[in-house]
Design goal:
- The structure holds two protein chains of two kinds.
- Chain A contains two helices and one strand.
- Chain A is mostly helical.
- Chain A has one domain.
- Chain A is flat and about 55 Å long.
- Chain B folds into two domains: 235 residues, no CATH class; 248 residues, no CATH class.
- Chain B starts with 6 loop residues before the first helix and ends with a helix.
- Classes of the chains: A mainly alpha, B mainly alpha.
- The interface between A and B is large, with 52 and 54 residues.
């Protein structure tokens, strides 16, 4: 337990964590704006939708986590289940 | 360079000497050995060498071509990085078993016939299990036994396939095969076990997290990628692989989200990444096979890097469980940065290695217009970022401060992580170097505006989803737990089902052997009476009697002769 390890860091400030979240939101917004500025060469019809990848990434991740939470109900056991 | 000398033999024979060399010379030797072997490989011309005639079969023990070269090279790099990572540990088991294991995987990749492949295939199993047992706990021992049974089992199925193949065709050459024949099916199954196909996969998640910190780094590199190579060699363009691979990319990520042991999370994501390669092999076009080889190359590096960072955490913090970690970035800043680089690479962020290889596979799928498979792969790409890209670094190094204060990783670990991280970024920034060694000529540009923007959209909105779910407390917390997977069938169900059978058998054998025992005791005692020390036959004969007997016999002989 050294003193160096216990120093108060930039990440410890809640205000800074909010800054990171805000930056993420700005990046996400800019990526949607970028939709207007590049040439699409789609292989599938869905790729032509506005912001398909963004929408799909967000929705599928939420569904992934919700499904995984449901799986816990059935599959989760105590840590020493196999011992 | 010695023409015809298989680098695998340099590694295997050289590794056997490791325990005999005292420290500190051993530290130098274990790094120089795979480097020398790599030099032998890089300078060696392509072709088939070291052919051996055995009965009426021809063994092609060293076949070097575009496909086997890529795998041979990355296996060497992984071996070098793996031994550097373990240098701080004086236990000779890691370099010895690790280098034999690497040599076996390289030998298997260079095998031009199925018998040579089988021998090296089994050697990978027999050598790598020591990396699990090196943990020296009962859990690790049991996990190692399960691992060994499954791995050797895969080899036995391969042997069965090889025998049928030989009797069908009269040849044992390891070339393209198909699923129409029995031999083709058996060999496919053997490869599928090692490649952790769905329902055959669980040996991977069961055993890799039970190995030592250094052991898992080595384990993650060879066995499964050897299986990918074998599939690419034997079953390229086999359509069912596309579907097997697509399922492999998707289902492990559900487990990864709720798994608490972070090295097990990585084992699930390893499985998911193999799925991308299997899909590519199933498509089988030059672009897809290049993608499979390139992705195996990049994957070995970033997966090793992730396992290295988690190994460092295990060594220093004493645990890899998400529920007990957090805030380690203060104690282990270097490891944190390396972990994030590995996470960015596996998530295929532009400028990191995964991007330049995975986009080849996704483009190959798109080129074939496989809509459902493509949607699954895109989902799996977002999912892998979710659990490997965010969950691993977040719960280990950030999240709530667990209060654990420990030392930074030892120097050897930091050197290995630093080199691996540099390679991950180097490949991402200069993909041309990787593309130059792929089996087919590459006409592919990863960095187009469309690729970069769509990939960033996918990843950043996954990150946004994670953030929203964390803020709204929807995200499942890390809990001390295990999750049932297919290993339940043989670790619980089979044990439960077989316990009465075992009791019955032991009862029956008890009765049977009781009877046998009585009979044999009787037999022994009557034999003892007839021929034992006190028996008539065993009594000593006096020498005069003996002489009389011999003289009598001679007289009879003489009499008979004269007549």
């Amino acid at each position: 337990m050294t003193e160096q390890n216990d120093k108060y860091t930039w990440f410890d400030k809640p205000a800074n964590v909010k800054k990171i979240i805000a930056a993420l939101c700005v990046v996400c917004a800019l990526l949607l704006v970028a939709e207007f500025f590049y040439h699409k060469h789609p292989h599938f019809a869905v790729e032509e939708w506005f912001g398909f990848y963004a929408f799909y990434g967000f929705v599928m991740c939420v569904l992934l986590v919700l499904a995984a939470k449901l799986m816990r109900v059935v599959l989760m056991r105590d840590e020493d289940y196999y011992d | 360079m010695i023409e015809g000398l298989n680098p695998a033999l340099i590694l295997i024979v050289g590794a056997l000497l490791v325990p005999l060399i005292p420290q500190p010379a051993r530290r130098v030797y274990v790094v120089v050995l795979p480097l020398l072997s790599m030099l032998q490989l890089v300078l060696h011309p392509f072709g088939t060498f070291a052919e051996v005639a055995l009965f009426n079969m021809t063994l092609e023990t060293f076949r070097l071509d575009g496909l086997s070269f890529v795998f041979g090279l990355i296996f060497h790099i992984a071996a070098v990085l793996g031994v550097i990572y373990a240098i701080h540990d004086d236990d000779p088991i890691h370099p010895t078993a690790g280098l034999i294991y690497a040599g076996a995987a390289i030998g298997a990749a260079f095998a031009g016939d199925l018998l040579t492949l089988f021998v090296y295939w089994e050697l990978t199993a027999a050598s790598s299990v020591f990396l699990i047992w090196a943990r020296r706990t009962e859990t690790a021992f049991n996990a190692g036994m399960r691992y060994l049974i499954i791995q050797v089992g895969s080899g036995v199925i391969l042997l069965a396939g090889l025998i049928v193949y030989f009797s069908d065709t009269g040849s044992i050459a390891f070339n393209e095969m198909n699923l129409e024949t029995t031999a083709g099916k058996l060999i496919f199954l053997a490869f599928g076990i090692k490649c952790a196909f769905p329902f055959l996969h669980n040996w991977l998640q069961d055993t890799y997290p039970e190995a030592t910190a250094s052991g898992t780094v080595l384990l993650s590199a060879f066995t499964t990628k050897l299986a990918v190579y074998a599939l690419a060699r034997g079953y390229a363009g086999t359509e069912i692989l596309i579907w097997i691979g697509a399922v492999m990319t998707a289902f492990p990520i559900f487990y990864a989200v709720i798994e608490n042991d972070l090295r097990r999370v990585l084992a699930y994501s390893l499985n998911n990444q193999l799925g991308f390669m299997v899909v590519a092999v199933g498509i089988g076009t030059p672009l897809a096979l290049n993608g499979a080889a390139a992705h195996a190359f990049c994957h070995i590096l970033y997966k090793a890097l992730l396992f290295m960072s988690m190994g460092a955490v295990l060594l220093r913090a004493g645990t890899c469980k998400g529920s007990e970690l957090g805030g380690l970035y203060k104690s282990m800043p270097f490891t944190t940065v390396c972990c994030i680089i590995g996470a960015a690479s596996i998530s295929a962020f532009p400028l990191f290695s995964g991007f330049v290889s995975k986009s080849m596979i996704i483009s190959a799928v798109a080129g074939e217009h496989l809509t459902l498979v493509w949607l699954m792969l895109i989902f799996a790409s977002a999912g892998v970022f979710h659990h490997s890209g965010i969950k691993i670094p977040y719960f280990a190094f950030f999240a709530h401060d667990s209060g654990i204060r420990c030392e930074e990783a030892p120097l050897s670990m930091r050197v290995a992580m630093g080199i691996t991280a540099a390679l991950c970024i180097g490949i991402g920034v200069f993909p041309g170097a990787l593309y130059a060694i792929l089996p087919y000529p590459v006409d592919y540009v990863p960095y187009t505006a469309a690729h970069v923007i769509t990939q960033l959209q996918l990843l950043m909105y996954s990150a946004l989803a994670f953030t929203v779910m964390m803020l709204w407390k929807i995200y499942p917390p890390e809990l001390k737990s295990v999750n049932l997977d297919t290993d339940w069938f043989y670790r619980k169900a089979a044990v439960k089902a077989l316990t009465p059978v075992a009791a019955l058998t032991s009862g029956a054998t008890g009765t049977l052997f009781g009877q046998l025992n009585r009979i044999s005791t009787g037999a022994i005692s009557s034999l003892n009476k007839a021929a034992g020390p006190q028996a008539r036959l065993s009594r000593p004969i006096e020498s005069t009697n003996m002489v009389a007997l011999v003289v009598g016999a001679l007289l009879i002989f003489l009499a008979l002769y004269l007549i």
